[in-house]
Write a structure and sequence with these properties.
265 residues, seven-stranded parallel β-sheet, 7 strands, globular
Length: 265
């Protein structure tokens, strides 16, 4: 019997690549988008979901279980980046970032866990980022959400393991997706940051353009889905793999200088 997989944020980028690859491999795949009618994907059943809404999350998961009979794998991918200096970002903007990138994952996990515990099996895969290990300048709250996802997932790994449920983090470096183009800029710019922010945004765009393809991240997700005993962390791409190791062995001043150079700050 084919496993049923739910991929959030499947209208573009990593989510779309993941949903398509899993569908090609014979899994029953449901992808989500806030406007599913405009995000149809071959072999994937698209459903409506707003991860910021308890009611939307409940309706989505209940609808999928009603159609498929069960849900074996949850891939939490929905999210967005917020650009701008920390000082430029309002508390409301920061809260909005957390509502989607962090609490969206929490809502989804809480919705699927009762069924997975009852079945004695299930996989939860949270798409994190190198930004959950190395904070990105002028992206403080995006980085903060990814650090939060890392800590939450690690705790969750311990808690649900006795029920036969696994938790895995996928941690890519720069990925060539539209996330940069879709990133809102903090609404109250401070002139003192203008020159540095402009340089950083230009470098960020270049890094994304030179990033790994979304399909490479999708292959890591497939590896987890097909694994009998998946691990907690899967680092994807050369930069995503060696930078966390480097951080552990070089002095902070040396590492920080490399980060500033990467982002021209």
């Amino acid at each position: 019997m084919s496993q049923t997989v739910l991929v959030t944020g499947a209208s573009s980028g990593i989510g779309r690549a993941t949903a398509r690859l899993l569908a090609e491999r014979g899994f029953t795949v449901f992808g989500t988008a806030r406007k599913p009618e405009s995000a149809q994907s071959q072999g994937v059943t698209m459903v409506a979901l707003d991860v910021r809404s308890d009611e939307s999350v409940r309706a989505c998961v209940e609808g999928i279980v009603a159609k498929a009979g069960r849900l074996d794998v949850l891939v939490n991918n929905a999210g967005y980046a917020m650009m701008g200096a920390a000082e430029e970002t309002s508390v409301e903007e920061a809260k909005s970032q957390f509502e989607t990138n962090f609490f969206g994952i929490v809502r989804m996990v809480n919705a699927v866990l009762p069924g997975m515990r009852a079945a004695g099996a299930g996989k939860i895969i949270n798409i994190s980022s190198l930004a959950g290990n190395t904070a990105i300048p002028f992206s403080a709250f995006y980085s903060a959400t990814k650090f939060a996802v890392e800590g939450y997932s690690e705790s969750l790994w311990h808690e649900v393991r006795p029920f036969g449920v696994s938790v895995s983090l996928v941690e890519p470096g720069f990925v060539n997706t539209p996330i940069g183009e879709a990133s809102p800029i903090a609404a109250r710019p401070v002139a003192a940051y203008d020159a540095t922010r402009k340089r950083m945004l230009a470098k960020f765009g270049q890094s994304l353009a030179a990033g790994i393809p979304a399909e490479q991240v999708a292959r890591s997700v497939l590896q987890i889905v097909e694994s009998k005993e998946p691990g907690l962390r899967y680092r994807v791409g050369a930069r995503g793999t060696w930078l966390p190791r480097l951080r552990n062995v070089v002095p902070w001043k040396v590492y920080a200088a490399g980060v500033r150079k990467t982002f021209a700050v």
